[in-house]
Specification:
The complex is a heterodimer of chains A (351) and B (488).
Chain A lengths: L1 H30 L19 H11 L4 E4 L9 H8 L3 E3 L7 H15 L5 E5 L18 H4 L7 H4 L2 H13 L22 H7 L12 H22 L4 E6 L4 H9 L3 H15 L5 E5 L4 H4 L13 H13 L3 E2 L4 H14 L8
Parallel strand pairs in A: 1-2, 1-3, 3-4, 4-5
Antiparallel strand pairs in A: 5-6
Chain B lengths: L5 H21 L1 H17 L3 H23 L3 H35 L15 H16 L8 H9 L12 H9 L9 H34 L7 H32 L17 H7 L2 H12 L9 H19 L3 H24 L5 H20 L3 H11 L9 H4 L6 H8 L11 H15 L4 H7 L4 H16 L13
Helix pairs in contact in B: 1-2, 2-6, 3-4, 3-5, 4-5, 6-7, 8-9, 8-19, 8-20, 9-14, 9-15, 11-12, 12-13, 13-14, 14-15
Classes of the chains: A alpha/beta (351), B mainly alpha (488).
């Protein structure tokens, strides 16, 4: 009798576990909210808000012929604009605070999935993040998303957070669904782009002179470019690389001035640009000295993040070849930036 | 490997169980060797370097045991035991306390000796003490003939390897020796073991980790200022977290042991129901308390050498307990607090002869234990004092959203949302209050997991309930957390 009851307990218990896990696992695989196995379902209201876990799946399964890479400086771009201007189906694969290693990791995924079918890589480079450790990543890559081990996918398939937040929640509240052309977009609304909002987040940097020699920064950039960017430019020479330096507001240069960094940053841009322009498949766009943009706080929500309108402007420029920097005009542009950063009347800003 | 991991639940445990029972049909010794092999994989999964340390420790201790067995003379026996104990303590001292001692010397004598940054092998305190206990038992003549396979299984058996309980020779060795060739499989005991494992997993995954998020928030943000309600709740939550975490682990260990037909010693018996600190230590981490009593308190004379010596012995036992728990001043302070409280309790009982009302003594004991845990959790003594100061600063404002975020996510939050309760003015507090009440009622009034598993009937309904609980835990495993007691 007792033996029978025990068997009933075991059988009912095992069946319950299997039924529960099957239900959840099947739902996760069918919807696949991180796009780990397949492209998104046509009518499912996906919430695309987790760059670390979703970018590899997007790179592997979305239909695109160009990509937009970079930090949070790239999240406000409307990827439809690339199609309208250049006819390119562009996939946004931003990582907030991205380091060069983050770009290398996602470039591997992109080229693994698309091979030589990637026509163009748009890459926003933040000089600040390009002189550190070449293996540094902003976030630890999630093992079951980034590795090729199918067994640890159980952490994805049987995952309460994935099931509740990305399979169930969108079904109950479709208003949270992401627009595919604006994934990862910042929460700021048009009313937030003004000086009042910038002031909320900004305090001038302490006036402590940066003692790090310029050569140390340059060495760091050289190592990062050699390890994480240049190999892809060389290996995929049929792909065009359109690189741009995101236009931070003039307050960025105020801080740089207060810390004695203007010449160092200009030297970094000089080195990076010269290295990148050695390759025929690379174009570089320079917005740092674009006064109409960087001196107008109606373009900014904080001291570096610019509005969707500025993003559109950048795409337009890249499409038309405006603000392109070449070996011939590089020094002129850098000198113009240096002059602006040193001479701007920072006291006129109502901080 | 963690009990609360997918690899353990989906692969390691089923494989080990199936292998053990199949091999045992043909050869009992081979089944034991299988268990040892799997236990080494379990341990080495964390870090293969640790494995070498543990294997060396097992070989060293078994060699000491063999030498003691062969030695007839009491003096030689004593010397061999001393060598064994010194060897074990040296290993423990090196890996656990070297950096602490260097750091202390640097601070006291304003030196600048570089730290060695030694990684602590998991569970080293547990398997070292377990083996010292075994050698002490051999010295007292309490160990029968013990083959190497049985000894290796005694030390390495994976359920109790890295966070206890500290198994003792008397209760475990006969069981390992008693593993016989054959098909014997007690289905009922197996099911009870599975129940206990699932209940332990629930305590860890669903309760301890939820309370832990608020605790982590409070300690991380203490220097920026937290209000008194948050501090008081953080102190209570850590008390609950630690119990659900450590006793949950031990429940799982006991449950797994039962699945293999092995009774692992009980380590927790509803400790927060205690009415004095002595009772607390008979209910909390029972096997450590028994080890310290058998191997330190009694050899020092226990209560046989007069009152003053008794108090000194109690004090020393708790001092050693504090040091055992961690290389840090906070652990020593925690141990001393318990030592002093034990002495005070004993003085009140024997000298003043006051019998406090049960409820009052219960409350005093619980409050004391809560406050002592603050030192156990804090990184520094000053951080612990800051937490206590914050708790009594009188800033009784509502807990912040970030403090409660661990409660306000996941399945229960969705239930509240669907019921439109989250829009109520007190909606954000519902789950924290519910968890707090549930946790408190569980530790004070309800039977513990062992008692529940013991009484639960084996039928279809319970099969469905426990199956659902297991599935719930499995889908909650992502963002896998470690057990608090691994580093002790």
């Amino acid at each position: 009798m007792s033996e029978n009851n025990a068997k009933k307990f075991i059988i009912s218990g095992v069946l319950t576990v299997l039924a529960g896990l099957m239900l959840i696992g099947t739902s996760v695989i069918a919807v696949d909210p991180f796009f780990h196995y397949h492209a998104p379902l046509k009518d499912f209201p996906y919430i695309v808000d987790d760059q670390v876990d979703m970018n590899p799946g997007l790179a592997a399964h979305m239909d695109y012929d160009s990509v937009l890479l970079g930090s949070s400086m790239t999240v406000a771009f409307d990827t439809d604009r690339f199609y309208d201007d250049m006819g390119l189906k562009t996939q946004k694969l931003s990582y907030n605070g991205a380091y060069p290693k983050d770009q290398a990791i996602i470039l591997d995924k992109i080229f693994k999935a698309k091979g030589d079918n990637v026509k163009e890589v748009f890459l926003g480079i933040d000089e600040l993040n390009y002189s550190g450790d070449i293996n540094r990543t902003k976030f630890t890559p999630t093992d079951y998303i980034y590795d090729d081990n199918p067994f640890n996918d159980v952490k994805y398939i049987f995952n309460k957070t994935v099931f509740l937040d990305y399979v169930i929640r969108p079904l109950f509240d479709r208003t949270d669904a992401s627009e595919w052309n604006m994934i990862y977009k910042p929460w700021w609304q048009p009313m937030h782009y003004n000086l009042a909002n910038v002031r909320l987040y900004y305090a001038p940097a302490e006036e402590i002179i940066d003692e790090t020699p310029t050569e140390a920064y340059i060495e760091g950039i050289e190592a990062n470019l050699d390890a994480n960017i240049i190999p892809y430019i060389e290996e995929h020479s049929n792909t065009r690389y359109t690189i741009f330096y995101p236009p931070y507001s003039i307050l960025y240069w105020y801080d740089a001035k207060r810390q004695g960094q203007i010449d160092k940053i200009v030297a970094k841009y000089e080195y990076m640009t010269e290295r990148l322009l050695e390759y025929d498949n690379v174009e570089v766009y320079f917005f740092q000295n674009d006064e109409d943009i960087i001196c107008n706080f109606d373009n900014y929500a904080d001291y570096t993040h610019y509005s969707p309108e500025v993003c559109d402007y950048i795409v337009d420029c890249m499409s038309e070849g405006r603000r392109k920097v070449t070996k011939d005009n590089l020094q002129t542009e850098l000198e113009s930036l240096r002059k602006l950063a040193y001479d701007y009347d920072y006291d006129s800003i109502d901080l | 490997m963690l009990f609360n991991s997918h690899i353990f639940i989906f692969l390691f445990l089923p494989l080990t169980l199936i292998g053990f029972y199949l091999i045992k049909r043909a050869n009992a010794r081979a089944a034991k060797v299988w268990l040892i092999g799997m236990s080494l994989w379990f341990y080495g999964y964390f870090n293969t370097g640790y494995l070498a340390i543990m294997i060396v420790s097992v070989l060293f201790n078994y060699a000491i045991y063999v030498l003691m067995k062969r030695t007839g003379k009491p003096a030689a026996l004593k010397i061999t035991l001393t060598v064994g104990i010194v060897g074990n303590l040296a290993l423990l001292m090196y890996f656990k306390y070297t950096d602490f001692l260097i750091d202390s010397c640097n601070r006291i004598f304003t030196l600048n000796i570089p730290l060695k940054n030694i990684l602590l092998p998991l569970g080293i305190s547990f398997f070292t003490f377990q083996q010292i206990g075994f050698l002490a038992d051999e010295y007292r003549g309490e160990v029968k003939e013990c083959g190497f396979v049985d000894y290796a299984l005694f030390v390495t058996f994976f359920p109790q390897l890295i966070a206890g309980p500290i198994a003792d020779n008397k209760s475990m060795m006969p069981q390992y020796e008693g593993i016989k060739k054959g098909k014997d499989f007690d289905t009922e005991v197996f099911c009870k073991g599975a129940m206990l494992f699932i209940l332990g997993l629930c305590k860890k995954v669903l309760l301890a980790d939820t309370f832990g998020k608020s605790v982590d928030y409070a300690y991380t943000n203490l220097s920026y200022g937290i209000n008194s309600i948050e501090a008081l709740l953080a102190i209570l939550f850590y008390t609950l977290q630690l119990y659900f975490d450590f006793s949950g682990y031990c429940d799982m260990a006991l449950g797994i042991g039962m699945m293999f037909g092995i009774d692992i010693p009980v380590n927790f018996d509803s400790p927060y129901k205690s009415r004095n600190i002595g009772e607390f230590w008979r209910r909390w981490h029972i096997t450590l308390n028994r080890f310290l009593t058998d191997n330190i308190y009694i050899p020092l004379g226990g209560s046989r050498k007069g009152e003053v010596r008794t108090y000194i012995n109690i004090f020393l036992v708790f001092l050693i307990s504090g040091i055992w728990h961690g290389a840090g001043v906070t652990f020593i302070v925690w141990g001393l607090m318990h030592g002093i409280m034990s002495i005070i309790t004993r003085l009140i009982r024997t000298k003043i002869r006051i019998e406090l009302n049960g409820v009052i003594s219960h409350i005093i004991t619980f409050v004391f234990v809560c406050l002592a845990w603050v030192f156990f959790r804090a990184d520094t003594v000053s951080q612990a004092l800051d937490m206590i100061k914050s708790a009594f600063a009188g800033t009784f404002t509502r807990p912040g959203e970030d403090f409660m975020s661990g409660f306000n996510s996941g399945e229960f939050w969705y239930v509240l949302k669907i019921c439109h309760l989250t829009t109520l003015s007190f909606g954000r507090y519902i789950l924290m209050i519910a968890f707090t009440l549930a946790g408190t009622v569980m530790v004070f009034f309800l039977p513990n997991a062992r008692q529940i598993a013991g009484k639960a009937r084996l039928n279809i309904i319970n099969g469905i309930i426990f199956g659902a609980l297991l599935a719930w835990c499995i889908i909650s495993l992502s963002g896998v957390s470690t057990f608090l007691y691994f580093n002790f």
